[in-house]
Specification:
376 residues, alpha/beta, seven-stranded mixed beta sheet, 11 helices, 17 strands, 29% strand
């Protein structure tokens, strides 16, 4: 039997981040993924400044576009706000995930792609598994295998997760005004229920998508077709169409670790409920999981994760409730003087929570918070 200190199942951003930190800390790490790399994953591919500060390595080699402008839409109404500093860095998961896995190897981890994990047995003293038919033993297991992974189920972890859904596709710049959208991210509020539509610029194409509550699943194709048509894009011209689940953890409701197992990223339900983004949460949970394992203190992982994420997540859940109830009020608030500075600060990681807003931004944000409290 091959033995390691840690087996990391899933080489997305959370899994590779954990592997990088673990290997740098001296652990013997096996990082595995069932897909052959490079491979794509359904994801908007945006990395905020907030997430960038948690990245385990330099990601500049895989950045394709830098967004400086947000355009918000509600029906026929729209407005734009810009920042001299980058708001979001755009990449593709095909490139980002391969880059992070490579950096895990540079740090000292062993990486095997195209490997399915089976026969998973978990005990307090460690785990055993079959990796590509070969027996593997490890003291710790990191579950980074996403919303539909096997680790959380095998370990009996991850309860209290709410599901959303999203559908996205790509459109060539030949069919869209590249000059207009090259540095602009578009967010359309109000539809689908529990989410929004987006247009994100990439190197050779733009990514169009819609996401919302799980119950919106049967209508997502219609939502995406309407959204594409609003930009004079024939829905049939969208390529690489794919759907995915958005696992969102209720604050304080889930258990992300046991004596031998730690969940990170989507496997732990760490998608931001308002934005649908999970990159900051992936990098942060990977770092904290590695720290807990290196200290042999998986029991402390849950509190460390809550300390890092819950304050912001609570605000996101509140904003999501308000957006569901009244998209028009949220659109008005976003347009109000000073509010975009708070939004930009949150994206760039300079503002930790909306309650840090000052001046003209405070009244509209307080009004949105009051709406959220009334519909809890």
């Amino acid at each position: 039997m091959q033995r390691y200190d840690v087996l990391v199942v899933g080489a997305g951003p959370a899994g590779s981040a954990a592997a990088i930190h673990l290997a740098r800390g001296g652990a013997r790490v096996l990082l595995v993924d069932r897909a052959r790399f490079p491979r794509d994953k359904p994801c908007g591919g945006g990395i905020t400044g907030r997430a960038l500060k948690q990245a385990p390595c330099d990601i500049s080699p895989v950045v394709e576009r830098v967004v400086h402008t947000f355009e918000f839409r509600l029906g026929r109404r729209r407005f734009s706000r810009s920042s001299t500093e980058p708001l979001i860095l755009m990449t593709q998961r095909r490139r980002l995930d391969a880059h992070l896995a490579e950096q895990a190897v540079v740090a000292g981890a062993e990486f095997r792609d195209g490997c399915r994990v089976g026969q998973l047995e978990i005990e307090d003293g460690g785990i055993t598994a079959s990796v590509r038919g070969e027996p593997v033993g490890a003291r710790f297991l990191v579950g980074a295998d996403g919303a539909n992974g096997i680790v959380a189920k095998a370990a009996g972890l991850g309860e209290g997760i709410v599901r959303g859904v999203a559908l996205e596709g790509n459109v060539s710049w030949k069919l869209l005004d590249q000059e207009r959208y090259a540095t602009t991210a578009v967010i359309e509020l109000g539809s689908p229920a529990g989410g929004y539509g987006w247009l994100f610029p990439k190197g050779e194409h733009a990514n169009l998508g819609v996401g919302g509550w799980a119950g919106e699943g049967p209508q997502l194709r219609d939502h995406l077709a309407r959204f594409a048509s609003a930009y004079s894009v024939n829905p049939d011209a969208l390529t690489e169409l794919r759907g995915h689940r958005l696992p969102m953890r209720r604050v304080g409701a889930s258990t992300p670790a046991s004596a031998s197992v730690v969940l990170v990223g989507d496997a732990a339900g760490l998608v931001d409920p308002l934005s649908g983004d999970g990159m900051y949460e992936a990098f942060t949970s990977g770092r904290l999981a590695a720290a807990a394992i290196l200290a042999a203190d998986t029991a402390g992982y849950a509190s460390a994760l809550a300390g890092a994420l819950d304050h912001h997540a609570g605000a996101s859940w509140a904003a999501k409730r308000a957006l569901d109830r009244s998209p028009a009020v949220c659109f008005w608030a976003a347009r109000s003087p000073g509010v975009f500075g708070v939004v930009a600060g949150l994206l760039q990681g300079d503002v930790a929570h909306p309650d840090q807003a000052r001046g003209l931004a405070r009244p509209p944000l307080r009004f949105v918070a009051r709406i959220a409290r009334h519909i809890q």
